[in-house]
Design a protein that fits this description.
single chain, mainly alpha, 60% helix, 6% strand
Amino acid sequence: MAATFSTALDVHCSIPNCSDKKYLKLPTKRFATFCKSPKSPPNESEEPHNQNPSLSDQLKPLSTTILSNTLTKQDPSQTQLLNKPKSIWVNPTRPKPSVLTLQRHKRSSYSHNPQIRDLRQFARKLNDCDTSEASILAVLEEIPHPPTRDNSLLVLNSLRPWQKVLFFFNWVKTQKLFPVETIFYNVTMKSLRFGRQFQHVEELALEMVENGVELDNITYSTIITCAKRCNRFDKAVEWFERMYKTGLMPDEVTYSAILDVYAKLGKVEEVMSLYERGRANGWKPDPIAFAVLGKMFGESGDYDGIRYVLQEMKSLAVKPNLVLYNTLLEALGKAGKPGMARGLFENMVASGVTPDEKTLTALVKIFGKARWARDALQLWERMKANRWPMDLILYNTLLNMCADLGLEAEAETLFEDMKGSEQSRPDSWTYTAMLNIYGSGGNVEKAMGLFEEISKVGVKLNVMGCTCLIQCLGRAKRIDDLVKVFEVSIQSGVEPDDRLCGCLLSVMSYCEGEDSSKVLSCLQAANSELVAFVNLLEEEKTSFETINKEFRGILSETAVEARRPYCNCLIDICRHRNLTERAHELLYLGTVYGLYPGLHTKTADEWRLNVRSLSVGAAQTALEEWMETLTSIIQRQEALPDLFSANTGAGTHKFSQGLASSFAVHVEKLAAPFAQSEEKAGFFVATREDLVSWVESKGPSLSATT
């Protein structure tokens, strides 16, 4: 019979807590252990499966025995600790680690390093010293403790200027006291990335490859993001492809960065391919990645792409943050979808995200571009009611929208609100917007009053405000005030640009006598070459070759966006001074140099003259040229379409001069068979039969008429 014996044991058991590394001590429990020998010896062939059991396996029988004595009598099937262990706090906003989370380096045991204070003081001294090599070497000689691995890493992490980080890193390598590991390269590269020094980063990476030092996930991520910050997109793609060849899986930061790189390169297919590849590998895109996709589709105006982004976010239950909402709103604005932008904004507010200044500015721009005046004004009322943040840029955007839509009263209310604001006082762009509003409306007295106010409040008038005011005064034929504004602006430091010169040219086109000379003197001070070219146009002996050469020289020195207005104004000047032949020459040169793309469009059913971007004089000249061309075609009995049309635009701006009315007068003067369309505003139409009959009735006298 087996022998049985018992003894009492004192067992102290402690269970470690992995989060705070404190220990939960169970109360000492005295219990009895009974040992009983078996009747037969154990089978030697029955070996335990684990010769070296883990700590958890060793503690399992003890924990079962201990906890069994703490069970309640009512329910012995449940285990319950006598003392409740300390709870572990889990951040609910931090997502669970995904398969792409970086495996960070193990931290050095700084807390157990008694030399840490001395080394940090040494690092501060190194940070404060001069960046010259002699100064840094002098400080390095005073290092308080030997540069061991941990000491060197501590100092390296404590340095701030990238020059000193790189110098210290190279100095550590020359000491050859320990093998330089990957973590040293990573710390140095991150400092270089902050300083936007991609060349040094790439040199270190190539050095790692040459010396056989492992490039881990953090290394590649640092290289790629540094290349992106330095706009070296080609290098970012190159190192990302090298990373993939090594078999390393990019982390969330790297994926978002490389998506942005491909998007900025315009490689939409590569972006989507990379996105799908990452999703297949278990990557859950964050709001930053979706912001990259939304911005990419917005730049190209791809409405379907933006919808795809919204659907992906919904399917993955990704909650957009404020930055993502702002990006998507800007994308929808570029895609020309104001209705969808308004819906997205309402969803944003309903989800509890408070819009900021960028959100509201983007939405105001969208409404202004779509000419949704009522929606924009309702948004402004909501801003005030909800006390949403409004900065100077938002106020100026609202004023510019009012200028585009001709909302003078609303603009004045906004302007007064800004005057009473402490944080958004009117600046030069605010006054420019108000001058634009008054100038477009022809309100000369208010515009001049605002000009006097600018000098009193100490705001410097910019060139755009000067241009708006000169245009307003020119239309009102107040040339003396125009000269005064120009001279005061030049004295205050305004430098005339191409737009201001174009405005003076425009005023010259409808001035006569002494007034024309006054404007010409202003233009002489702004751009003497333009004045010389205008005088050249008036000389009869000037050949076409000379006009071509001088005109090409002027265009080469003019900003692209101002070239067509220059040509329009010069044509207007020629027509106003009865230089019709010069006007036709300038229109021809403007067409040759690409200033009027799409002036003529042809289909099998319709030929159209598009003069929406032309001035009144240029549009009249283009009509005369077109009629002469059509006459020649009809006389040669060539094939013609059924319909001919001329498009002047509808003039949706409240203060537009109305090109259509001037065009209609000239059509009537030529007795051309075009009539205004009843279905489309701004269109003049004629049938083939009407045009043929008109040519036959005019005969060879058409050239004399035009």
